[in-house]
């Protein structure tokens, strides 16, 4: 049973709230990490789908009567990632808005599939490709902005420098490799598995960001301090 108190409160409740954020971040990271391999190995083992040249191709593949056998998994993962990012509340107002936009665009990737067969083409700025690229741009911005707010709770030193480096690096992954995938899709004809590889490296950046954020929050106790009223959320 709970009771209202004037000051302070039960530390166990605050830790429970903190654990919710902690679990949410690791859940997003885990989903992104296994997403491509569920499509590849699940499609190969259970549905005899050959390894596709891009993640988006799994919405339709393979050609023929059994097309789209991995579609539910593709759409399900994207909806789950979008929902979790939307439910996660950023440490600042700007971070929250960027995550919300990224979540909507992630769902858009599933709602507006690529042209099929791939030879038909989508054009340079299809809804599918624009949603994917826009989501990664938003997440890259979140990664690059992170050192400017949450890391203010950590004293300058080697550990803080490592976090800054990690955020910048994963932000580059989030921007550069999806951009390469877009260029390969539109200007390379049939680049084989290079598009798939670039997309996976983009997801590595996505996973790395969430892992880094979880480790940082574990070190700074930023959310716990906010729950205790020891820090104020900056309006940016």
Describe the structure.
The chain has 236 residues and is mainly α. The chain has one domain. 66% of the residues lie in helices and 0% in strands. The protein has seven helices and no strands. Helix 1 packs antiparallel against helix 2, helix 2 runs antiparallel to helix 3 and helix 5 runs antiparallel to helix 6. The longest helix has 37 residues. It is elongated. The N terminus is likely disordered.
What labels would you give this structure?
236 residues, mainly alpha, disordered N terminus
Overall pLDDT level: 84
Secondary-structure element series: HHHHHHH
Query: What is the overall number of helices?
Result: 7
Sheet/helix structural class = mainly alpha
Number of domains: 1
Please report the distance between the alpha carbons of the first and last residues.
Answer: 37 Å
Radius of gyration, CA atoms, in whole angstroms: 20 Å
- Categorize the overall geometry: elongated
Share of helix, binned: 55-70%
Question: What's the number of extended β-strand segments?
Answer: 0
Describe the sheet with the most strands: none
* Low-pLDDT stretches: 1-6
Strand content: under 5%
Short description:
With 236 residues, this protein is mainly alpha-helical. It has helices at residues 11-47, 71-87, 93-111, 127-145, 158-187, 194-220, 222-228. It contains seven helices and no strands.
């Amino acid at each position: 049973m709970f009771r209202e108190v004037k000051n302070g409160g039960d530390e166990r409740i605050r830790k429970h709230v903190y654990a919710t954020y902690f679990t949410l971040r690791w859940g997003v990271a885990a989903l992104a990490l296994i997403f491509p391999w569920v499509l590849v190995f699940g499609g190969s083992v259970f549905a005899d789908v050959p390894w596709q040249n891009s993640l988006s191709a799994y919405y339709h593949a393979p050609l023929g009567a059994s097309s789209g056998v991995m579609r539910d998994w593709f759409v399900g993962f994207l909806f789950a990632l979008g929902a979790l990012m939307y439910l996660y509340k950023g440490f600042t107002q700007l971070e929250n808005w960027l995550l919300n936009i990224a979540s909507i665009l992630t769902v858009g990737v599933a709602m507006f599939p690529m042209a099929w067969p791939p030879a038909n083409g989508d054009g340079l700025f299809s809804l599918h490709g624009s949603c994917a690229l826009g989501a990664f741009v938003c997440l890259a911005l979140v990664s690059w902005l992170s050192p400017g707010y949450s890391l203010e709770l950590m004293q300058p030193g080697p550990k803080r420098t490592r976090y800054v480096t990690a955020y910048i690096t994963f932000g580059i992954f989030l921007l550069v490799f999806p951009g390469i995938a877009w260029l390969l899709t539109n200007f390379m004809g049939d680049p084989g598995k290079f598009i798939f590889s670039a997309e996976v490296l983009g997801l590595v950046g996505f996973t790395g960001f969430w892992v880094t954020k979880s480790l940082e929050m574990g070190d700074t106790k930023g959310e716990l301090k906010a729950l205790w009223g020891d820090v104020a959320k900056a309006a940016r």
